[in-house]
Amino acid sequence: MDRSGAVGGGAEGPLTQSLARVEWPTLAVAAAIYGAFAALTWWYAILPWWLVLPAGAYVVCWHGSLQHETVHGHPTPWRGVNEALVFPSLWLWLPYRVYRESHLIHHRDEMLTCPVSDPETYYVTPERWRTMHRIHRALRRAYNTVLGRLAAGPPVAFARLLNAETARLRSGDRSHLLPWALHLAGAGTTIVWAVGICGIPFVEYVLFFAYPGVSLTLLRSFAEHRAAMPIDQRTAVVETGPVLGVLYLYNNLHALHHSVPREPWYALPGLYRNRRDELLASNAGYRFRGYWEVVLRYFVWPKEEPAHPFFGAGGWTAPAAPPTPVSPRRAA
User: Fold this and answer.
1) In the 8-state DSSP scheme, what is residue 307?
2) Do 159 and 143 contact (CB within 8 A), yes or no?
3) What is the pTM of this model?
4) What integer pLDDT is reported at residue 316 of this predicted model?
């Protein structure tokens, strides 16, 4: 045994090898998130609303990006440690384990955008679209605009979640009871701190932190995917600067993330620089030059029709080309 306590002439033990796999940049992000959140909530009463609103939204959205990292096995080799790292639910609405389960299903790329198999899609089947009331159709089209997604996104997302979870319970499936119990404890921790200790009225916490934080997250996911039969053409890239890149932990490079889902966030910019031409050729140039372009194109114009264009009664049907967005401001 050497001085380090390792057996076998200096060979590293399992614990040492595991510690070497800890991703310290991600732990630094976690420290920054919780530090900023603590500061914003502790001094909430003396901070102006115009500072709290964007900062609170940024921090809550950033925490959601951290959750996404932990779902993919970061920043430690220990799943329990990763889950504990995001235990407090800053955005209050989504149980972590439910998100983890649905997001990993979403990563079955062959089913991306499928209205019956992809839990993160906003498409509906053509049959369901035909039976919708015209008012429901209008609301669906409005929700496919940036304005609709940002303004109504949080309550719509929560309603979708509750509908799915209620249907699960009615079918006799109680597998999500523990995730919900853990979520209530995590959300309760946040509320006890923000409301009970820092004195922020609950409604104000929702309006200045949780609601805009979820909306910012929905801006990231708004244009991530489109209906296309070639799998590689279904996922976009949004090239943005460091402020939003770090906010989303470079999940804006979404086509790259789907191709290498196990890579940590801080490795993605370098990988993208090296593989940019290959990725854009593979996804048929499904790229935005920034979120400003997403907003300008689709602020009040639907990105696509909600009915999935390639879904038939027997499954997928082969298209000649990806669908054309209905926005009149679509770039040439």
Assistant:
1) B
2) no
3) 0.90
4) 58
